[in-house]
Amino acid sequence: MPSVEITQKTVTKAKADAKPGNPRYEITDTRARGLRLRVGPQGVVWQYRYERNGKTHRVLLGGVDEWTIAEARQIAGDAAAKLRAQYGLTDDWLHHQRIKHRKVTYSRPGKIDDDRKLLKWSLETAIKEYLTEVQRTLKPKTHDDYKRMLGTPELQPFMKRSVATITRQDLAGVVAAVHKRGVERHAEHLASVLRPLWSYLERDDLIRKTGVQVGEMKTLAAPRRSRIGTLEKRKPKYTPAMLEVGRILAIARSGAFNPVTTAALELLVFTCQRITPIADATCDEFHALPGTDEGLWAMPTLHRKTALRRGDLSDHVIPLPAPAWRAIKGQLQGDSDYAFPAARPRRKGQEASAMASSNLSHALRYMPGVTATPHDLRRAFSTHGQRHFKWGLDGTKLILDHNEGVASGDVTAESYDLDQSLDEKQPIMRSWCGWVEEWAAAAIAQDKRLSDGEWLADQVKASRDADKKKAAKKAA
After folding, report:
1. Residue 225: phi, psi to the nearest 5?
2. In the chain, count of helices (H) and strands (E)?
3. Which of 99, 116, 133 is where one domain is finished?
């Protein structure tokens, strides 16, 4: 491959060599780094070559009759400057070069003769397409979470830019800006959402439309978290007293909430499971135990946080003693497949599905005199239950642990424990549910207002309205 100062004589000879049967070759210009002439049976074209991320990239600039030698060198210099500024080279860029050198006239998007420009997605388009794919393949909650994260204000300046021009350094700056405003976990989560977005854009069937560099975002990460400091400065984890647990049950039953939310709250207090499997539970997960006033809740793998990743396809079965079974039984008689159906569709044109899990966390926040979150209830079950009933950590794990209380490497137990340890679980659940009932009665005895459903409904409404007003103020 000769390296020479390309002149008009060089071009004339190259055009003469561009005949069928003649060998292909390239000529490197010594005056413009990366600029080459490619000579072959189809003709002579200008090409710009550069290295990035350990890979060689080539950009076809156009025929030798389209660009003069001076113009080709000018374009090569512009490309080098753009790469030094950490921008990519796309068909958008090349089209603007044609406009700049008056090879084509400017036209509005959608009317450009060079349809290659239309094949490059903006970040806005990429996010829209990606969220459609997430909605098709992943859980609704994952879709909503990704949509929220990709709406981060720091990303807005990039929305109209072609994704092919967005570099890892650009997005690292976005993540760092989020980290800087003090939400360090949010910054880490944003990076973890941007990485699969770019993996989607790199798909073989999409890369012609996106123009992204393969592997560009693979190492995108947030800055390291700030040092926490001394243990004394750490915010202690909150464990609600049993009187507060009883208060939650009393308020849930007071009539301050609609019947669906009431039943879901009761199931939350009695089982201490995570709010997502409760909200998304379907009627066929619940089974009555014949000849008793009790039942079972068979939580499928889909609801269990790490089960799919481990290849564990077994259900997590929770015994439902009489109080818990009474709470859920009425919800299994309706027309919906969901035990706790939503009052209205989440999106226009869709059918109503399950209630939003946030309904439960919000409900606890609206309760007067209640500080606990849904996760705090799990801590109360573990702390107070072990201390009072002496069922131990293993007993707690049987109820709360998504691994069924079994280490993930214990294949025999995972595969052959067919009775789901019900003989161990039922005494634990009966003890807990009975104890919570006692504390609900104690809470009412201490605070007579917990028997006043009208007063409680007013308190809940006032808290909800205050939340809405605060959100509206923040949005404005």
Report:
1. -65, 155
2. 19, 8
3. 116
